[in-house]
Amino acid sequence: MHFKDGNEIFVGTNNAGIYYSNTGGTTWTAINTGLTTSFINKIIKYGTELYAATFSGVYRSSNNGLSWSQSNSGLSSTVVHSVVAF
């Protein structure tokens, strides 16, 4: 989960991809466009970018999760359990 201001929440699931809420968890919307996996290990937000660690590699979104693209160049394994940005 990622909290921005208490109302914006991103949740990664074990079999249904990523969900987003801007109502503090009252309502949820699936935001999986571009993901080729539904198993999400970790999500982080760094500036305006979102990153998701999955068993199919790292995915990046620059539009608050509306679409995702793989970001695996240079990785020797695409099984990614965690991601951290500074």
Walk me through what this model shows:
The chain is mainly beta and 86 residues long. It has one domain (2-70). It is 0% helix and 37% strand. It has no helices and 8 strands. It has strands at residues 2-3, 9-12, 18-21, 29-30, 40-46, 49-54, 57-61, 69-70. It has a 4-stranded antiparallel β-sheet with strand order 1-2-3-4, with no helix packed on it. Strands 5-6-7-8 form a 4-stranded antiparallel β-sheet, with no helix packed on it. The two termini are 18 Å apart. The model has no long low-confidence stretch (mean pLDDT 91).
The dominant shape is globular
First-last Cα distance: 18 Å
In the sheet with the most strands, the strands line up as: 1-2-3-4
Largest sheet: 4 strands, antiparallel
Rg of Cα set: 12 Å
Number of helices: 0
- Which regions have little confidence, pLDDT < 50, spanning 5+ residues? none
Number of strands: 8
- Percent strand equals 35-45%
Count of domains: 1
Oligomer: single chain
The share of residues in helices is under 10%
The average pLDDT is 91
**Could you give the order of the helices and strands?**
EEEEEEEE
Structural class: mainly beta
